[in-house]
Amino acid sequence: MASVTQTALWQELKKHALDIENQHMRDWFAKDNQRAERYTLNTCGMTLDFSKNLITQEILDNLLKLASQQQVAEKRQAMFGGETVNYTEQRSVLHTALRNFSGEPVLVDGKDVMPEVLATQEKIKSFVESIHSGSHKGFTGKAISDVVAIGIGGSFLGPKIMSEALKPYWKEGLNVHFVANVDGCHIHDVLSQLDAETTLIVMSSKSFGTQETLQNTLSAKAWFLSSEATQADIAKHFIAVSSNVKAATEFGIAEENIFPMWDWVGGRYSLWSAIGLPIALTLGYDNYYQLLQGAHEMDKHFVEAPLSENMPVIMAMLGVWYSNFLGAQSHVLLPYYHYLRGFPAYVQQLDMESNGKSVNESGDFVDYTTGPVIWGSEGTNGQHSFHQLIHQGQVLIPADFMLPLRVPNQDYTHHAMLASNCFGQTQALMQGKTFEECYADLSESTLSDSEKAVLAKHKTMPGNKPSNTILFEQLDPKTLGSLVALYEHKVFVQGVIWGVNSFDQWGVELGKVLGNAVLDELQDEQSEPDFDSSTNQLISRFKQSLSKA
Ligand code: F6P
Question: How far, in Å, from the CA of 152 to the mean position of ligand 1?
């Protein structure tokens, strides 16, 4: 099948990119005082102002035509309908079923999966209530005071970042700690401050084969058994979330303590499954349920809204415009809300592990850019760190700004300052500051005219730097659920445009295999490594340092 780059629409969009090279958003706003209103969408308690983007109506129309041409609506239906859209693993992709409150069945291989989804939600609910009520006792008869959630990737990022984002909603009396890295410092620092008799270990691993998670759980088990506890007490203090029940029971987790998940839920899409158990423990089940509800609201919007009024589709097609026609290689997320500071890291896995691909469904290498580098940090911190490059650097970096209009624990002055920085930054990125304006600012300076001209050049801000601004009333669990689902569906739409499989992750396998071979060498004092000279010398240096210890 011909590449999408061969289509007339793609060629048309390439022409548009040339047409706007000498145009400026500043002028578009000056000429059209309806621009902001026209390019703003509202849904699920969120407002997306996408007017500060390098688009004309003609460009936007053609981007939406491209979405239609690439069958976004049809592929959306296929995903929600349980078809095998993850074609390299022969799996459905149904994280949407985990928050399906429509009452409609969801069929996988002809079987309605909703009964087991709902049963697992009930299992989560009753377990969480048993911990919060204190009815679940540890081996000395005490209630649980601390939870250590062990997992990595999608088994860590969702639980940790969503819990962090909803700090104002935390349940009193229970401390939830998150451990991911196999660096022993992490698990040591967490466990060394806890008491085994009141600690619950939640081990989350969809595959139950991830080295870091298994090792961290083994260390937690050793720590637990170094207390007064016995093997028989494990059942009171260790639970697992996995789709690999066999491996979890073989590991020593009691079957009744295993919360199931399914192979049609990808790791980076799994916080809506029992992987979200630490979130429910942190917030209480009702708040966790609101998170699911919010995602469901966004699902409905994504399925029902026309492409031109569809928030995920608009954000996706803007990203395609920047990546494939204006040469952007990265996309920055700037949450202007301290509790949402982890959101860029969450979207990093969601986006980069989904669309960091180069081969299409036919097995051909694609001849265009696919997933961008996702990065970012909380505002206003970035303004004192990397915003300089976004304003005056040589690379185009589209930005997503996010701001809650109401926040807890803050006085008005702080919040007004936060908002003014957010809005001021998007304005500066859009309008910039011309050489003439910078030169005029120097009119009182004692510099010579030529020195003023040089300094004015350095101070010139090109502007024309694109940004989206997402506003929400407040970051409550429901809004957060909608926000996460918004990015999930944005990633999905982009994967459809690029013709890649957004739901496998073969690229992470080789490093694991090679890492295991190196580990064997590091753990064998006698053997001589037989890899490339660099790896050999690195192994030798590591072994030497150990022998000196
Ligand atoms: O190696 C990548 C990955 O498979 C991610 O996709 C996943 O979220 C993470 O590792 C953890 O996997 P698991 O939940 O199976 O331990």
Answer: 7
Looking at residue 525, its pLDDT comes to: 86
Partners of 324 in the beta sheet?
Answer: none
C-alpha dihedral (215, 531, 511, 362), degrees to nearest 10: -150
> b/e per residue, 248-263, with b = 16+ CB within 10 A?
bbebebeeebbbbbbe
Residue type, 402: M
> Mean pLDDT of all residues in the chain?
97
Torsion sign across C-alpha atoms 303, 304, 308, 312: negative
What are the DSSP calls for 373-420, one per residue?
Answer: EEEE--TTGGGGTTHHHHHHSSS---EEEEEESS-TT--HHHHHHHHH
Instruction: Report all structural domains of the chain as residue ranges with CATH numbers, in order of start.
Output: 4-16+39-83+305-427+466-504 (3.40.50.10490), 108-289 (3.40.50.10490), 432-461 (no CATH), 507-548 (1.10.1390)
Q: Is the CB of 216 under 6 A from ligand 1?
A: no
Tell me which residue has tokens 């209103």: 37
Contacts (Cβ under 8 Å, ≥6 apart) of 80: 94, 96, 299, 303
Ligand 1: does its nearest atom lie under 6 Å from the Cβ of 268? yes
- 241: how many CB neighbours lie within 10 A of its CB? 30
Rounded CA-CA distance 416/410 in Å is 10
Q: Write the single-letter amino acid at 77.
A: Q
pTM metric for this prediction: 0.98
Tell me, in angstroms, the distance from the centre of ligand 1 to residue 206's CA: 7
Q: What does the pLDDT average to over 286-314?
A: 98
- For 433, which DSSP code? B
pLDDT tens digits for 520-536?
Answer: 999 998 888 999 999 99
Provide the token pair at 147.
């939870």
- Percent helix / strand / coil, the chain, rounded to 5: 55, 10, 35
Q: How far is the CA of 255 from the centre of ligand 1 (A)?
A: 22
Instruction: Look at residues 276, 207, 201 and name the one whose alpha carbon lies nearest to residue 240.
Output: 201
**Cα 373 from Cα 296, distance rounded (Å):** 27
Terminal C-alpha separation, the chain: 60
Say if strands 330-335 and 373-376 run parallel, antiparallel, or are unpaired: parallel
Assess whether 353 carries a catalytic annotation.
Answer: yes
Catalytic (active site) residue 512: yes
| Smallest CA separation from ligand 1 atom 9, residue | 153
